[in-house]
Specification:
The chain is α/β, with parallel strands linked by helices. 35% of the residues lie in helices and 21% in strands. The structure holds guanosine-5'-diphosphate. This is Probable GTP-binding protein EngB.
Length: 197
Amino acid sequence: MHIKSAEFVMSNSNVAKCPKGLLPEYAFIGRSNVGKSSLINMLTNKKSLAKTSGRPGKTQLINHFLINENWHLVDLPGYGYARVSKSSKKVFQKFITEYFGLREQLVSAFVLVDVRHKPQPIDLEFMQWLGEHGVPFSIIFTKADKLKPNAILRHVEDYKTVLLEAWETMPNYFITSSSNETGKDEVLAYIDALNNN
Ligand code: GDP
């Protein structure tokens, strides 16, 4: 898929106020600093569509972007940032669970994980939660330019081993780098295929 247009639509923390209509949407979520904003900007060919986070965890909003006038890309807040207060964590959890529970337009989520790290409980718990709630998702490994190819394979294998303890199959996954555009075509082709289903 070629991205011809990418426009900011709205930010809010209330699922009921998200865009009406039936455009399919894809939500990107992951731990703060995982490289989510950089990935969104890379996918959409924009330098600063999503704000790269100088202060991780600050923006706790659901951000909708309209892509090619026929689907929505959704930038969800980063989770697991230690400096977020307990009360704001609660609010965050509430609207994230509401988003995944109520948003009928959601076709698939993309859970981003930094390819350099071993499987982290917070990411595994989140994927487990998505699975239990019937939310389809793929994993996007980020920052692949920071590892050699064999180290990437090893880290992905570690993930597979852990996930296959709980799941029958490994979720669909992509290996990406926003620095050198690895994985860009694959992620966009995947979304394109789902849109045309
Ligand atoms: P977010 O908090 O998940 O939105 O993460 P950002 O996109 O703001 O990225 C966090 C940090 O990781 C920034 O310093 C980015 O420059 C860096 N980063 C993001 N993606 C990549 C990548 O693919 N490769 C490398 N080397 N650095 C990245």
